[in-house]
Amino acid sequence: xxxxxxxxxxxxxxxxxxxxxxxxxxxxxxxQHEIILHGQLVPYVVRRSARRRTLGLxxxxxxxxxxxxxxxxxxxIERLISSNARWVLxxxxxxxxPEHAAARAWSLGDPLLYxxxxxxxxxxxxxxxxxxxxxxxxxxVPQPHNQTETRTRLRAxxxxxxxxxxxxxxxxxxxxxxxxxxxxxxxxxxxxxxxCARDREGSHRVSLNWRxxxxxxxxxxxxxxxxxxxxxxMHHGPRFWAAVARLYPEYEAARExxxxxxxxxxxx
Length: 268
Hints:
By secondary structure, the protein is of the alpha/beta class. The protein has helices at 74-83, 85-95, 98-104, 147-177, 217-229, 238-247, 251-261; strands at residues 6-10, 31-37, 40-49, 54-60, 63-69, 112-114, 117-125, 129-132, 136-141, 183-187, 194-198, 204-209.
C-alpha cells in the first residue's frame, strides 16, 4: 500500500468488543473540525468508514484530512493530530509553496500531465471522447463552452485512460510473477496510491489511484509491481521487498520519488 502524505495509527478504541456490531453505514458524512497547533488554528475534515481499523492523517490540496473508524473518539483523533503537529504544519506549508501552486491550480486550457508528459489540451465540440497524441490531448464534448461539464467529462475520460493503462500493466506484472491477473478497482484515495485485498475465496483485487495516469510510466509500474507482490506477500517484510525487487529492480529510487510526487499532480 502506498501513502501520499499520510500517517497511520492502529485504532484501539471502541472496536475491541468482539460481539457483532450493529449495522452502520459504510461511510458517514464528512465532519468539519478545528484544532490549535502551536498557536495556529488548523481546520480538518474527518471521514469515518466501517472498513477502517486505523486512524490516518493525510494532507492534500484540500488541507488536513483524517480517515477514521466509525467509532473512533474525537479525543483520540485530536491526540493523533497533536502528537504529529510539526509534521502537519510542515506539510500544510509545503502545499503553499509557489512551485506547487501551478499544478494545484490547473485550469482548462493549461497543458495537462499525461503519462509524465505535459501535453496541450484542445477542446472541440462533438461526441464525448479523448484522443491522445504525443504532444497534445484533444477532448471532444457536446458543449465545450460549459466549463463545469467539460471538466467533468475530462475527469471521466482520463479515468477511462487510466483503467486501460493499469490493466495492461497488471497483466504484464501478474504474468511475470506467476499469479492470476487480479480484479482492478480505480480510486481517488486521499491516503494511498494503491492497495491489494484478498477475499474469502482467495481472489485478489488491486485498487489503484487513477491520478497516477499523470505520472511517468516507470512510476506507475512501480506501484503496480508493489501491489502484485502483495498477492503472495500480504505484508512489508523482507520476502515482500525481495519480490518487489524481482519485479521492479529500481524500486528504492521510485519509492522515494513517489513520496514527493503528489505535490506535482494537477487537480482536475
